[in-house]
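Please review the protein record below. Let me know how this chain folds according to its tokens.
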Amino acid sequence: MTDLSGQIALVTGASRGIGAASAKALAAAGAHVVITGRDAKSLESIEEAIFEAGGSATIAPCDLAEGDSIARLAEAITQRWAKLDVMVHAAAVLPQLTAVRDIDQAQFSKALTVNVLATQALIAWFDRLFKASADPRLVYLTSSVASEARPFWGAYGASKAAAENLIASYAEEARNTSKTRVAILDPGATRTAMRAKAYPGEDPASVKPPEAVAERLLALLGERFASPHRERVNLSS
């Protein structure tokens, strides 16, 4: 069992899906979890579930598309805890699936803002808080389309590929300058709202639940993985 007692964790995209399941798993392991997302009501529900299970959490509604939201979040965590031990970056936007020639520029821009620019901003604002931790770890949730081109997934795939490159580059930069370890985790086919949007005809029961990914993520946090670490969660449903 991974023990995160006394550690501060931040989970983006925590209002549902893999982010929500990860937040609950980290809290169950003893971490105080800061849960962020755009849906305050859903965050309150996740926080309540964590409390009922004996864990502790703080909700921090945050829209990663807003220019100064990440700076405000980092400042709040700095003021209260002055460190960050774990970040699970699960938030992402899925633009409409369409041919590259037909990509809607407004949707693509939003995906780039949330999936790429916000990822860089999170690194920029939280690097100093990682350095204040004895064992800082960053886990980035990616997608296979970041490295395997697929018809009609160009907009999303391009944004995730760019974000992956930022994360991997940060890992290389941190290798000899800090204790921060970075993992890039591909959940694989998972029962989420985003997947239901992409595959509306799929039976949700045919793919694994978010809790399966959260279980592997938690186990990974307890391992002394080399940075950057990369793996795909291939589990049966």
Notes: The helical segments are 17-28, 40-52, 69-80, 105-131, 154-174, 193-198, 210-221. The CA atoms of residues 9 and 70 lie 15 Å apart.
